[in-house]
């Protein structure tokens, strides 16, 4: 199966956000990955509800919303109303992770769980069967353009084994430092979704770069 490609809008040209979204609409991208940062869970601030709504107004593809925020349970319904199709929360930010996953699913959105690079996949043992997506951070969250963490390959294998053991249907998403050099091995290890930000938007031909990532094997 060909990978799902989810370009990260955080790396786009914010001054021309509509045209960037329209470019993605016309590309082979499958989802639009939207990073929401609050300056507390990560040392950066990105989009709020108005920008997400504006992206959703022009996007013709699902919005994969990654919440890098504290107390995400306070805002789940609002992110769904703003256009999120998938909502991923960080295990590290959720005191009651199972409850938050069920809260996401109750809105009609798909529920994702994100893990920081240092967090063991085994902590998902009791909740992975309820998730639709597991986002493994392959860089430290907060900023684009970081170097890929090699330990990610081992974590994908461990995550895949846990998904199989728990009879989960969750997809494995890799977020951070994805490029044409590591994409084939990421997919070989078991990744389903590749998030790419600066690698796509900083390339000379973003649409062709998406095609190339889509063809990785």
List the helices and strands and how they pair.
Layout: E1 4-7, H1 17-25, E2 32-37, H2 49-58, E3 63-68, H3 76-81, E4 86-90, H4 97-106, E5 110-115, E6 133-137, H5 152-165, E7 171-175, H6 183-189, E8 193-196, H7 198-201, H8 206-214
Parallel strand pairs: 1-8, 2-3, 3-4, 4-5, 5-6, 6-7, 7-8
Binding site for a divalent metal cation: 33, 35, 66, 175
Organism: Pontibacter flavimaris
Catalytic activity: D-ribulose 5-phosphate = D-xylulose 5-phosphate
Describe this structure as you would to a colleague.
- With 217 residues, this protein is of the alpha/beta class.
- The chain has one domain (4-214): Aldolase class I (TIM Barrel), CATH 3.20.20.
- It is 32% helix and 19% strand.
- It is built from 8 helices and 8 strands.
- An 8-stranded parallel sheet has the order 1-8-7-6-5-4-3-2.
- The longest helix has 14 residues, at 152-165.
- The radius of gyration is 16 Å and the shape is globular.
